[in-house]
Amino acid sequence: MITDNEKTLRFRKFFLENFPKVKAFAWKILKSEDDAEDIAQDIFVKLWDKPELWIDRDRWDSYLFSMLKNYIYNFLAHKSVELHYIEDTAEKIRLSELDVENDMTEELYAKEINLLLKMAVEQMPEQRRKIFVLSRYRGLSNQEIADKLQLSVRTVERHLYLALQDLKKIILFLFFLCLR
């Protein structure tokens, strides 16, 4: 049975002989000094808890490097999952930003079109504007408008037709303007 002091001395010797080799091997694969050092340290911490693997062992090199290869494999697999998660998250964020941007753009276009339509209604002759407002904004029927303004239903229909034609021209103009 070995004492704790002996165990510490043997591990120190084992560590000093092998840590640089393990770290160098990990660096060759990972091309990252920090990752190579982290993996090498993890391996030696695990080995400290299992002295039977390194005390009085003549050929521990194969076990040590098998352990290292498994650590590197697991590390790379974890990095791959992590990278995939980051890419998915970035894509979701990018799409949500596009949705917000599209929503804001659509809202802005809708406000601009609404403003242009209001301006067009304000530019209509007074009688046509009154009839249009009563019909579209207040929801009155053609008969109700005719009774209220003391006009024939046919006159109301004609004014509504002309008002809608004016607005249609503006909408078509905006449509062709947006296609450019």
UniProtKB/TrEMBL annotation:
Coiled-coil region list: none
RNA polymerase sigma factor 70 region 4 type domain segment(s): 116-167
Key words, A-Z: Sigma factor, Transcription, Transcription regulation
Gene3D superfamilies, sorted: 1.10.1740.10, Winged helix-like DNA-binding domain superfamily/Winged helix DNA-binding domain
UniProt domain RNA polymerase sigma-70 region: residue ranges: 16-79
One Pfam family recorded for the sequence: Sigma70_r4_2
Family assignment from sequence similarity: Belongs to the sigma-70 factor family. ECF subfamily.
Protein name: RNA polymerase sigma-70 factor
Source organism (scientific name): Phocaeicola acetigenes
